[in-house]
Design brief:
Elements lengths: L17 E4 L7 E5 L17 H4 L9 H12 L2 E5 L21 E2 L2 E2 L8 H28 L5 E8 L2 E2 L2 E2 L4 E4 L5 H13 L4 E3 L11 H6 L7 E7 L6 H20 L14
Parallel strand pairs: 2-3, 2-6, 6-11, 9-10
Antiparallel strand pairs: 1-3, 4-5, 7-8, 9-11
Helix pairs in contact: 2-6, 4-6
């Protein structure tokens, strides 16, 4: 459906683009899940995709929101999540990124993203991306104004097989130039999980996957980490709860170290 200059992308029936769970959470950890949903606004139909494709990893991060919700419950933490598919707009990408509204994702063509007009792109930025990141920024600002020290933790999942290649890594601890929290979590990983855990896998900052952290945590020198869990390990409630408990244990052990008192550091070898 083509949008006119006066048309909105989202309707009342679609609901808002962002959810905030447990907004008064006591924990300094702020959980963010950018790829929580595979929903498509009604105005976009199904982006020309079959239902089974919208259930796949190209549309969202399966299991990630359940892990994030379980972590929020354990920690009494606030959780901010995106309510629409990453195919509509990937809120972990900058608006100008080639994969923010991808016409091709892995092996799949996304017909509804082909040849988007400037107006169509701007509608998605204004109605999906901007309110999501304004919510994250406002939440951080409220906490810092109250004298708190937010810790930004983004939760993702990844597919076991990508472009036909099996991924051995099961848990990725990702960071950009600020490796403080990632270093501390990796120091404690073997105490709390038997998952194959690696630094900056299956992605790294050079692939543009740290956008949320780069714009919210880095400028404020806030501790941060991006977590990736292989989605076959969190396909059911038992796996989701196990992952949540392991990640909380790693985070809490890491935060007991005086990482906040050190200078932001370049990556150490894992």
């Amino acid at each position: 459906m083509a949008l006119t200059s006066h048309a909105s992308l989202l309707t009342v029936a679609d609901g808002g683009p962002v959810s905030v769970a447990n907004p008064s959470g006591d924990s300094d950890i702020l959980l963010v899940c950018e790829h929580a949903s595979n929903r498509i606004p009604a105005a976009l139909g199904m982006l020309g995709l079959e239902p089974e494709v919208l259930q796949s990893h190209i549309a969202w991060d399966p299991g990630a929101i359940e892990v994030a919700m379980a972590m929020a419950d354990i920690l009494d933490a606030t959780l901010i999540s995106q309510n629409f598919s990453r195919l509509v707009f990937d809120c972990n990408r900058a608006p100008g990124a080639h994969d923010a509204m991808p016409a091709i994702s892995e092996i799949y063509e996304v017909p509804g993203n082909h040849r988007l007009s400037e107006l169509e792109q701007q509608r998605r930025i204004i109605e999906i991306y901007t309110p999501f990141h304004e919510t994250v920024a406002d939440t951080i600002e409220q906490r810092t104004h109250a004298g708190r020290h937010p810790v930004i933790v983004t939760i993702h999942s990844f597919t076991p097989v990508y472009h036909g290649v099996m991924r051995e890594v099961e848990l990725g601890i990702l960071h950009d130039w600020d490796a403080r929290l990632a270093d501390a979590m990796l120091d404690h990983a073997s105490r709390f999980t038997d998952k194959v855990t690696r630094r900056n896998e299956p992605y790294g900052p050079g692939q543009g996957v740290m956008h949320t952290i780069d714009i919210h945590a880095a400028p404020r020198d806030l501790l941060n980490v991006m977590i990736e869990v292989r989605n076959d390990l969190i396909a059911d409630e038992a796996g989701q709860n196990r992952a949540a408990n392991e990640l909380v244990a790693m985070l809490m052990a890491a935060l007991e170290q005086p990482v906040h008192q050190t200078e932001s550091s370049p990556a150490r070898a894992s």
